[in-house]
Amino acid sequence: MINVTKTFLPDQEKYLQYVREIWERGYLTNNGPVLQELEAELKKYLGVDHLYFCGNGTIVLQIAIKALEITGEVITTPFSYVATSNAILWENCTPVFVDIDAQTFNINPALIEASITPATTGILATHVYGNPCDVEAIEVIAKKHNLKVIYDAAHAFGVTYKGKSLLSFGDLSTCSFHATKVFHTIEGGALISNHPELDRKLHLLRAFGHQGDEHYLYAGINGKNSEFHAAMGLVNLPLVKDIIAARKEVFDAYDSLLNWDVLYKPVISKDIEYNYAYYPVVFPSEQVMFRVMDALREEDVIPRRYFYPSLNTLSFMPRQIACPVSEDIALRVLSLPLYVGLPYSDIERISRIINAHLSPE
Q1: Among 329, 335, 336, which Cα is nearest to 351's?
Q2: Element (H, E) at 235
Q3: Which residues carry this modification: N6-(pyridoxal phosphate)lysine (predicted)?
Q4: Pairing with 68, which of 26, 111, 264, 332 sits 20 to 30 Å away (CA)?
Q5: 3-state secondary structure (DSSP) of residue 140
Q6: Hey, CA dihedral for 69, 75, 78, 80, is it positive or negative?
């Protein structure tokens, strides 16, 4: 079976060496030495000053909202994984959905201002598939209306924009290090801050908000991660460039084999180094998409409807806001298998199946 993704596993012995050292110390969590080493290496790799390794890519979104004291309404995208909007709801804020750009699939900055009200305090945008949002346009809007900006950069590890890590934009960026991501720590995530004054606050918010047993300063949460997860990150981090290069080979193969007279995919932003996190394709109709998906599954190839459904259509959202571009693309998009080691023969077979089922009949 070929799944949409496959976890990259590094050299086992290198990981086990860390495990043995952790075992000997008996220090398993609570900001241990391996975690601190990973944070230092990630800062160096990304060229950022303030980074906090946490338990997963969802808790970091919640901590970011809490740290920036965002309340009321939050402008956000309907084309993302549900964790983006759920984090807003869990922090007792109201997601206000703004439709996406039909080319990049990111939130359309030209539509943001029309949705801003006196209750709006923040923007939470996703770099969809690791493709950068229009960060300059969003920054202008945020400054004009005194809004905080959080970027859900779950897909964006290793992406640079104009020579800077994409994770360095906004007031806070968050990243996911889940096992399916380009860089992973099995489970994990990170907060990246541009505000030195938030340093202590973020550190405390991820660890219940107290220092020692006497100083309780914030309504914190358990956002910590373990030494074992940090160890996986330290083994994987030196391999990221090779991982991205291998993913690019798969990406380029699909580019050369698929029928682009019928299909299309997001336009990758200029001035970036991309990480090839996903390979989404948009079909001419939902009917064709289903036909292709069924044909692939008959051959034990499992793509994913990523992202579906458009989040603004979920029944538990407090406001039903039409986002026709997002709703349309969500019905027709599939992410194809993409991972290190996917054989070219399988890429050819997947492409052949797709191309054979594109006709409307």
Answers
A1: 336
A2: helix 227-236
A3: 181
A4: 111
A5: helix
A6: negative
Domains by residue range for the chain, with CATH: 2-238 (3.40.640.10), 240-356 (3.90.1150.10)
So which residues are the catalytic ones? 181
First to last CA, the chain: 28
Least confident range from 34-43, 163-172, 210-219: namely 210-219
Q: CA gyration radius for the chain?
A: 21
CB distance 345 to 294 below 8 Å: no
* Residue indicated by tokens 């997001």: 266
Residue whose entry in the numeric block shows the structure tokens 């160890």: 231
CA-CA distances (angstroms) from residue 252 to 24, 191, 276, 350? 45, 31, 10, 14
pLDDT tens-digit readout, 7-37: 999 999 999 999 999 999 999 999 999 999 9
Q: How is 144-170 classified by DSSP, letter by letter?
A: HHT-EEEEE-TT-TT-EETTEEGGG-S
- Helices and strands, counts by H and E, the chain: 11, 16
* pLDDT at residue 87 greater than cutoff 90: yes
The DSSP output letter for 118 is T
